Amino acid sequence: MTLAVIALLALVVFINVSEVSAASTTTVDTNSVVKSSDTVKNYIESKKTVPSTVTVADKNVTSEQYLYLLTSSVTNLNKNNNNAITVKTVAKAPKPSESITSGTLSKSEYINLANSITTFINNKGRLPNFISTSKGNMRTENMIYTYSKIVVFYKTNNRLPNFVAVAPWKMPNGGETNTPVTNSVDTNSVVKSSDTVKNYIESKKTVPSTITVTDKNVTSEQYLYLLTKSVTNINQNNKNTITIKSIAKAPNPKESTKSGTLSKSEYINLAGKITTFINTNGRLPNFISTSLGNMRPENLIYTYSKIVAFYKTNNRLPNTVSVVPWSSISKTDVGTGTGLRAVYIVSDNINNISVDNDRINRIVNELKNLGLQAYNLGVGPDKFTGNQKILTQIPLNTLVVQINGGACAGTIYEAGTEWYKSIMGNRKLFLVFTYGAASLDTPFLVRAWDDNFSSSSFNGLAYPGLYLQQHGIPYYEGYTNSQVTTLANLIYDYAKN
Length: 497
Prior knowledge:
- The chain is of the alpha+beta class.
- Helix content is 44%, strand content 18%.
- Helix 2 (30-47) crosses helix 5 and helix 3 (63-78) packs across helix 5 (140-157).
């Protein structure tokens, strides 16, 4: 072999090695994943299974790879960036399993779970058999469906949803199938529940926090959607089932309505507007404009429960429905009359009566400077709203601020129970934890040594901060008197109706 041939072969080897080392990594941008999401969501809902491959831009990826793209996209969207995402080689989960119950995941939870999923895939090169959530363990197919819904919401609304609904990936007779359970109810079930809600509002002067429709518990926000969809269904004489959506509260409800009546044509038209608003925005409107003025969500729930209750009794929709201002229904104390709740502050025994009362009075004075009506209701555990006697001193539609010297797992858990919510009615709760209390970010808060009110089986609470977030209860940690202005501003914002 000549020196020239040897040199040529060496050059060929050098070129081939250079080409291998320069091989490009396959990536897609977040926007391409967003564009593909509704196709995947619709496929799962129509075919009752996850597609084996998905086209993202001009690339075909496996369902395993697509879950990685979805969770990475949610992380990107939350950080408001459009970073390219590497299309990794991802193996299937070797033994997927699930134990999840129906409910909702908060935005903070599903974002944290997205990070956990991508981290697992990066470390293991495969999908996890399940991911642990506040609703139980979720299998991989359900993760793909859930995160496709989240990204579809972003595609439609240009923001991530505040909550996402989850339900079991159906496993009948103990055998696993690729069939997601549809979380829906029929119109007749809503009709059956309507007089119960109407009677509750008229007797309790507030809207119930949850309502049972057949065997499903729904929030008052979800129930308004079911009511308005039912009125539309009844008017159109159809038997369509109604999907139970994840619906956030109205951020700043207000009202200017006067007494009068709405015609059948108007309340049917308004029902369509309400459902359209909810479908578009994922939350209740602050008000809906009517011929009698602006009507707030609580009054909408009462009005439409009356309409549907009439149908239940008479087998037809009423020709008109009477409307009165919500203030005359709820008999509430709205503080200054400017749409701000009056604030009632109670405290546990933390230091001593003098110091604890001084802490309350500092906050009261700061709130009064902001224009709120604020009251010191006293010191002692008997002042907490779990004790029903104290509520006789606190009007409806007010804000209760409870100051805690320590983080008691039993007290925190109690605040999220249906029993507690039922005695609170439409009062709001704000929890304050003074400096030195255990962090609510802890994975598990053990039962307090002096907890003499929880059941004997209760030994503590997992992720207490997340628990409060899931139940819509705000809190402030590490409070000292030097932070009174900061705390007062937070309370002021939450006192807005």
